[in-house]
Each structure stands twice: as structure tokens, then as C-alpha cells.
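sry for the spam today, last one i promise. C-alpha cells for design, 123 residues
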């Protein structure tokens, strides 16, 4: 890891540390409790997943899509200031707001969807 990468990682860690709230540590909830019969989650913790943020969406016809050019504005289904959706492999896991750290965009989680709610949405 280069010095710049390490400095950026340190900046993000510091920013995340500032936002931590007592009792909401995501990392602690993923630890295996070691009960008999409980799965060992360590085997899946290094599997990469795709995380994305969705500002909003809309449906338009192909005719209108082909007429878009530089400067065109597309109206989305969200109001300005509404939280963004945080998706992992296409599944909604949280809502958040945009933050900027060292001229790079990030997202601060404002509302994490509970595991039971996520399971309900999968069905």
C-alpha cells in the first residue's frame, strides 16, 4: 500500500470513527458467537461484493432516451435532499447521505435496514 493509499485509508477511518454511535457497530454484529451448531462466518468474510449507491430512477421511452444529449436533465423519482439507497449486490441494505473526504465522495449511513426486513424483501 502506497503512502497516499495509507493516508486516504487513515482519513476514512478517522471520518468513520467520528460517526460511530454506541451500540451500532456493524462489525460486532458479524462475529460468530461460537454456539454449538452456529455457522462459522469467517469463511465468507473475505468474499467481495458490489456496493452501489442509487440516487433515484425513472422510466423513459427509447425515443426519449435517444434524444438525450449533453445538458439534458432527467427527472428522477426522488426529492432533493432525500437519502440515497445503499445496495449490496442489488439488495437494499441502508439509506445514507453523501459526504466528501479529501475531495472524494463517500456515503454516511443514516439508516441500516434490519436483517429481518431484508429477508422479507427477498421473498
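last one done:
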Amino acid at each position: 500500500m502506497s503512502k497516499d493509499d495509507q493516508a486516504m485509508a487513515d482519513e476514512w477511518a478517522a471520518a468513520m470513527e467520528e460517526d460511530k454511535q454506541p451500540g451500532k457497530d456493524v462489525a460486532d454484529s458479524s462475529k460468530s458467537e461460537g454456539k454449538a451448531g452456529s455457522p462459522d462466518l469467517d469463511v465468507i468474510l473475505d468474499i467481495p461484493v458490489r456496493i452501489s449507491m442509487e440516487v433515484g430512477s425513472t422510466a423513459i421511452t427509447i425515443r426519449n432516451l435517444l434524444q438525450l444529449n449533453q445538458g439534458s436533465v432527467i427527472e428522477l423519482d426522488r426529492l432533493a435532499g432525500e437519502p440515497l439507497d445503499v445496495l449490496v449486490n442489488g439488495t437494499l441494505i441502508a439509506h445514507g447521505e453523501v459526504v466528501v473526504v479529501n475531495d472524494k465522495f463517500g456515503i454516511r449511513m443514516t439508516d441500516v435496514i434490519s436483517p429481518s426486513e431484508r429477508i422479507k424483501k427477498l421473498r
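DSSP finds four helices and four strands in the chain. ok im logging off now
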